[in-house]
Specification:
- The chain is α/β, with parallel strands linked by helices.
- The chain is globular and about 45 Å long.
- The chain starts with 5 loop residues before the first strand and ends with a helix.
- The chain contains eight helices and ten strands.
- A hairpin with a 2-residue loop joins strand 4 and strand 5.
- The longest helix is centred in the last third of the chain and has 18 residues.
- The protein has a six-stranded mixed β-sheet with strand order 6-7-8-3-9-10, with helices on both faces. It has a four-stranded antiparallel β-sheet with strand order 2-1-4-5, with helices on one face.
- It has a single domain, classed as P-loop containing nucleotide triphosphate hydrolases (Rossmann fold, 3-Layer(aba) Sandwich), CATH 3.40.50.300.
């Protein structure tokens, strides 16, 4: 398993809704390798977001084993899981989860500050905002931005520290095709230049077009796993 970033074996996740138990994942076997650009696809309710949350140590499995960077998440304390997320993971959430009282630049700087990055964090934040065509909103708070701008700020925050693994839940959902292509080109360049690994949940054919691997979920099961080497390097110029 040398080099594997995440490994799931027989993973199940149940949710109790009233008196009903919902099986969101029903025995997932999956590995995430370094440098992948993976799209997780499937209909709504197939378990895509749940799977990302388990890989990212945001939730715990009902059954089975989840290893992240070689560590069994079930054996880690809550604090150890939080430290792992801070130091080695980046997240893009459907709801953005931007801090409402902070500007775009401050939101991007926030994780860098928690990681102990010094004076250069401001410059790094501004650089990544420029790459995403967000320089004009650097000093605006989330309520002063469009949904698409908030989405791109959330992506900028996720990648600013160059984490080993970025988990993105519908990262292009609120973007037009031009901005979506620019965002995917940036992520591809980070993958190529820094070895960052990306796993997306998505309904967007454009993301699938860029993906080097497409994992298909249905009813909490993996029903397809296609590797398409070269897709990310040749897509959407």
């Amino acid at each position: 398993m040398s080099g594997v970033l995440a490994s799931l074996r027989g993973v199940c996740k149940d949710f109790v809704v009233g008196k009903v138990t919902v099986q969101a994942l029903r025995g997932i076997d999956l590995e995430v390798q370094p440098g992948e650009f993976t799209a997780i696809v499937g209909p709504s309710g197939s378990g895509k977001t749940t799977l990302l949350n388990l890989i990212g140590a945001l939730d715990t499995a009902t059954a089975g084993q989840v290893l992240l960077f070689g560590q069994d998440l079930a054996r880690l304390s809550r604090g150890a899981r939080a430290e792992l997320r801070l130091r080695r993971l980046g997240f893009v959430f459907q709801a953005y989860n931007l801090v409402p009282v902070l500007t775009a630049r401050e939101n991007v700087e926030f994780v860098l500050e928690l990681q102990g990055v010094g004076r250069q964090r401001r410059q790094r934040a501004l650089e990544i905002l420029r790459e995403l065509s967000l320089a004009e909103v650097a000093d605006r708070r989330p309520r002063e931005m469009s949904g698409g701008q908030q989405q791109r700020v959330a992506v900028a925050r996720a990648v600013a520290s160059q984490p080993q693994l970025v988990l993105a839940d519908e990262p292009t959902a609120n973007l037009d095709s031009t901005n979506a292509r620019a965002l995917l080109r940036l992520m591809r360049s980070l993958r190529d230049a820094h070895g960052m690994t990306f796993v997306f949940s998505t309904h967007d054919p454009l993301v699938v077009e860029h993906a080097t691997r497409v994992v298909t979920l249905r009813d909490g099961l993996v029903v397809g796993d296609e590797t398409r080497e070269g897709a990310a390097s040749g897509a959407a110029r």
